[in-house]
Amino acid sequence: MSAPDSSKLSLNTATVREKWNLAQAIEGCARHGIRGISPWRDQVAELGLNKAVSLVKSHGLAVTGLCRGGFFTARDWRDDNRRAIEEAHALGAQCLVLVVGGLIPGSKDLPGSREKVKEGIAAILPEARKAGVPLAIEPLHPMQAADRACVNTLKQALDICDALGDGIGVAVDAYHVWWDPELEAQVARAGKKRILAYHICDWLVPTRDLLNDRGMMGDGVIDLPRIRGMVEGAGYAGFHEVEIFSKLDWWQRDPDTVLSTCKDRHARMT
């Protein structure tokens, strides 16, 4: 298939967060010609929402997503999600990414936890619609079902979307869904309407840490060109957001080197 469009590259700031704050990441993206950015809310809070909005606009960046809302199985989820919607609206984010939360505390009821997630999303969806902020459910790999996200496949996420209607879709993160035998069918089911974000990195073998050992594109086993073909074939024409948690490798490197590598690997390996 054809090479990816370099203008569609976006940086999830988790990729460089150990060495750069949000202001540095914004300036770094502009310096490297990366036109999209997806910040994390703690970094926005550290910089200040108004300053973050100003810097993003002055550097001409698209905010491809805001990370994150969700955790609907926790006790105090409602107010935090309302604030997340307000922040995403102010930043002009293309979506608010939802990491939905794991098992209800003290419970082993996985189906019940998923139902609670659906109820939580339904509760905040009217506010998100009013603010013009699409909500993007991000299914996470099953290894994180207990503590971070009990929604683990695109099918589960899309079932919630179909039940709740407009204003909600999915973030397709190659790291979390590459293994799914129903991936192709579910990406096609999602289509242009429901695919709100596309995240890329790679799965290392062996994986040394269940959370913070993602690989740079091309260093692992994910067939990224194939997945891009699925996503674009379904009608998605948005950004390709690099999101790498890498405590043992990329977080230790110079961020300018990381961004240069992201650009090179995006062009050659995705």
Number of domains: 1
Number of helices: 10
Secondary-structure element string: EHEHHEEHEHEHEHHEHEH
- Terminal Cα separation, in Å? 10 Å
Number of strands: 9
The biggest beta sheet is recorded as:
9 strands, parallel
Which fold name fills CATH's third level, the topology?
Answer: TIM Barrel
Strand order of the largest sheet: 3-2-1-9-8-7-6-5-4
- What is the CATH superfamily label? Divalent-metal-dependent TIM barrel enzymes
Q: What is the CA-atom radius of gyration, in angstroms?
A: 17 Å
Q: Based on the structure given, which CATH architecture is correct?
A: Alpha-Beta Barrel
Mean pLDDT: 98
Helical percentage? 40-55%
As a percent range, the share of strand residues is 5-15%
Low-confidence stretches: none
CATH class identity: Alpha Beta
Helix and strand content put the structural class at alpha/beta
From the spread of the alpha carbons, the general shape counts as globular
For the structure shown, list the relevant keywords:
270 residues; 13% strand; 43% helix; globular; TIM Barrel; nine-stranded parallel beta sheet; alpha/beta; 10 helices
Care to describe what's here?
The protein has 270 residues and is α/β, with parallel strands linked by helices. It has helices at 22-32, 41-47, 49-58, 77-91, 110-131, 154-164, 174-177, 183-194, 224-233, 255-269; strands at residues 9-12, 36-38, 62-63, 66-70, 96-99, 135-137, 168-173, 195-200, 240-242. The protein has one domain (6-269): Divalent-metal-dependent TIM barrel enzymes (TIM Barrel, Alpha-Beta Barrel), CATH 3.20.20. It contains 10 helices and 9 strands. A 9-stranded parallel sheet has the order 3-2-1-9-8-7-6-5-4. α2 packs across α3 and α6 (154-164) packs parallel to α8.
